[in-house]
Amino acid sequence: MDKLQVALVFGSINSEHDISVASAASVFEHFPKDKFDCVPLYIDKDGKWYTGDYTLAMMQSNKLEGHRELYLQFNYDRPGFIYADDQSLLPVDVAFLMLHGRMGEGGQVQGLLKCANIPFTGCDVLSSALCMDKGFTHIICEAAGINMADYQLITHINDIDIEKVTYPCIVKPSREGSSFGVTYVRNYDELLKACLFAFEFDTRVLIEAYIKGTEVGLGILKTDQKMIISEVDQVNVSGEVFDFQEKYHPHATETLPISTFPESVRKEVQRLGELAFNVLDCAQFSRIDFFVTEDHRIFLNEINTIPGFTSSSRYPGMLDRAGVSYPELITKMIEDLL
């Protein structure tokens, strides 16, 4: 019997392109090739889709060569991709999405794949879009009783309600990941500069009250109606913000596999994480991050619907400590779609 054709989709046109390639390289390295055929599908920075005989070394060095360009086929009876050079079909049974940032986590690719009748890992179109847009995350989660930082959403620099801004505060694009465009702000002049900087990434910008607390997080894996919730980890950062540098250069930060907060606090974080996952209608897997203050108040920070999968990323480590190895994690996610 032929093995299932699994398209490992990675890359994309947004700011997290290189992170996506790094995550995909780790997935490719641990992929259960004895069970499934892995077909790497690369989206370059211009938005073109390719496949090729990519090696692990190519992916790890982000130097992909030997491309054949592809087009997505919108044929419900013959799901797959069409080679641009000879119009032949590359059949695909399942798409394993390793796309980070707005294009990959915001619902666009998910919508395309649904139209093409290709099942995909992770959240559906709507939940992807809601979790990517932190403004909508605020609205839905706060309505469910989950605390988040006080905020205002602006679409123009003149929209700022200065009377509602307290310092320090955090300015961030509403629809970005990996802390791109995020600034810690101490005064009015910095606020204006930070907003203009955030507008370089998005047309919607959040100004959030700064939560003086410790960042903690948990991983969720939900397959076959069974939900695994990891232990709560803890991130000790050297600066005010857990930014891109600290997320992807492990020497700049310390991650504790189990938070030092009391068990009662960790259990409440797990409860709120599960609640956020459910009210946002997430599917399969996510990493959910919170802040916990000294007096143990808990604030949701964000939901990552396709969290980093690199060797230093938190999510695979969370699940490994919960008893699910990297290859098992990949297998469970694929088999859940069958």
TrEMBL record:
Manner of cofactor binding, per the entry note: Binds 2 magnesium or manganese ions per subunit.
Secretion signal span: none
GO BP field: cell wall organization; peptidoglycan biosynthetic process; regulation of cell shape
Cofactor requirements of the protein: Mn(2+); Mg(2+)
Compartments in which it is found: Cytoplasm
Gene Ontology cellular-component terms listed: cytosol
Record bears the keyword Nuclease: no
Annotated catalysed reactions: 2 D-alanine + ATP = D-alanyl-D-alanine + ADP + phosphate + H(+)
Catalytic residues, chain numbering: 16, 178, 313
Binding site for Mg(2+) 2: 302, 304
EC number annotated for this UniProt entry: 6.3.2.4
InterPro entries: ATP-grasp, ATP_grasp_subdomain_1, D_ala_D_ala, Dala_Dala_lig_C, Dala_Dala_lig_N, PreATP-grasp_dom_sf
Functional summary from the UniProt entry: Cell wall formation.
HAMAP family linked: Dala_Dala_lig
Protein name: D-alanine--D-alanine ligase
Gene name in the database record: ddl
